[in-house]
Please model this.
Amino acid sequence: MAAALRARQLSPLDLLERSLARAEAWQPATNAFSQLWAEEAVEDARLVEVAARALARAWHPAAARGSSPPVELPPAAGIPIAVKDLFDVAGHETTGCCEAYRGRIALRDAPLVRAIREAGLVMMGKTNQHELAAGGTNLVSACGRTGNPWDPRRMTGGSSGGSAAAVAAGVVPWALGSDTGGSIRIPASMCGVFGLKPTTGRLSLEGVLPLSPSLDCPGPLAGTVRDLRMLWGLLADEQPTLFDPDSTDGGVVGRPIRIGVPGGVFAERVHPEALAAVEAVVRDLESAGISEGEIPDEPRLDGGDPQGLRGVWHRICFPEFAAAHSGIDRGLVAPSVLRWMERGAEYDAEARAEAARRRGEIAEWFRFRLQEVDALVIPTTPYPAPPADQETVDLGPAGVVEIESVGPGWLTVAANLAGTPALNLPAAWSSEGLPIGVSLVGRWGEEDTILRLAARWEAATGYRPRHPPFPA
Model:
């Protein structure tokens, strides 16, 4: 899109009109958008077009020999984007898809939204999410549940489900989401797109409706690694360097790169097709010159408690959630979300202190294993997207589990507790034709490494984005 705009093969308004048409066509099936700003977006696209024409007229080498060209438009100017409904966008509601925040109009842009504006991107609207980001399914929302574009009867995963659905359906090339317990990676996995949870604290949370401030982490979703890297560069104000697809050494900064595959909790309550997808990613990376290192499973990451990771996450997230929304009208909050707040108020200081201690142990578990390898390869979700009304999932040899107990975030919360960056690859397809995600978990502050690995995987597999059939 950026190349076509620069070559003036089409205009920003052309792109936007296509995106708006796709949004309207997909909305009945996916309900991906909570707000669509067609008129405002058209005006923004026209402003980019006017600026591009003015720059083209202002300087021509033949007519202005010896003079300097004017400042160019940013390389992504004019490309559409969607933003999750918990980011402040000046002049629009920030509701987190919760009735209690209806009428809450943002006075200024969140810094990440401001970065998007400064890059010349055209914001089409806000995407649907699990209410107040308090869930991993996107089945609970004041705007109605989202539907998976591959099968609208199935969940998208959440809480950034609308963002993932919009990218998967080809409505926008990229979207902004947030990740507190897997809220970018879960829907990226279930909808079949790339999603990056950066190192916790790497991007600003100012102007972002909170779930759990010490765990919350904004990040990008996109259809390709190149697109993911481009949006990440805009948000982080840096330009990571991708692997050269023609390189054969698989090196990062002059040394070999290695991956590891942990077992334990990352292999026990997981669907066989998700485990097979991990094995396939490892084989693909090895064929591209990436070596595998040994990863010790002991001590167990969950401390021997089957609910260990989830329980630690609850005791950190829920109290912070209750405190962040202490003044809310609870009569306007969905019952399942209200239960999170109520449970948060019940945890005493001792429980919270124990959770903080365990959080440190979990971070140390990752730190030790990432000394020997550059990234861990794990399933993103325990299973592909289940039907929205289904309460259990059959994991084959691992048995039948309740979604309430072994939820979509069963495996993703670990990286949130540790604070490490993690990236979902749309790695495989289930026997039912549903996307299966595999995650690369990297060292703190080394988003560039897992982006490089993702690019290596993309090149090795010849991956190209697939979109579901256009609605009839």
